[in-house]
Design goal:
Length: 184
């Protein structure tokens, strides 16, 4: 087959693939406009002429035109015909296979191992001494005691933190770095 003829067939194949991409899935839209079907059938006529092979069996026949929508065809039929002809061209001429590279492409792996270090220049004792509320002092003291234990009771710590969060968002945020220093 002459190189020019193969190039023309490949061009028509590209046109058909483009049309296929414009046709909605049957689940989302059940009709295809007459313009697309006319373009499909014209492309198939050109393909038959260039390839010197009859591709008319892939045309969408006029008999499939919708009775209620005279300028439309069922999407399922149009998609089926287009899928059939593009698959045949892919099999006969190897079109569409150049999209799959024969050798692996470049793979870039970016592993970022950052560690955030935070130096905290205050303690729970500082927060206790700065607080005027006796209930806050009591809860912070309980938290300090619990965090100093070897086997921390995280359920109790959680309850204290919930109380602090309900009492004061600002105080809770001040406690977060201290809690992070004591994580298991």
């Amino acid at each position: 087959m002459a190189e020019i003829q193969l190039t023309r067939i490949k061009s028509i194949y590209g046109d058909l693939r483009g049309l296929l991409g414009q046709i909605p899935l049957a689940e989302t839209n059940s009709i295809v406009d007459d313009f697309i079907v006319t373009q499909l059938n014209a492309s198939l006529d050109s393909l038959s002429s260039v390839a010197e092979t009859d591709f008319s069996t892939y045309k969408v026949p006029e008999s499939k035109r919708l009775a209620d929508w005279q300028d439309s065809f069922p999407a399922s039929i149009v998609r089926t015909q287009l899928g059939r002809v593009t698959s045949r061209l892919e099999q006969e001429y190897g079109f569409g296979q150049e999209r799959t590279p024969s050798s692996p492409g470049i793979v870039i792996i970016n592993k970022n191992d950052n560690e955030v270090s935070l130096k905290i220049n205050y303690t729970i004792a500082d927060l206790i001494s700065n607080s005027a509320n006796t209930e806050v002092k009591e809860k912070l003291s309980q938290l300090s005691d619990e965090l100093s234990e070897k086997d921390k009771n995280w359920s109790r710590i959680k309850n204290i933190l919930i109380w602090v969060l309900n009492f004061s968002k600002e105080l809770f945020i001040e406690l977060i770095p201290i809690i992070l220093q004591n994580k298991p």
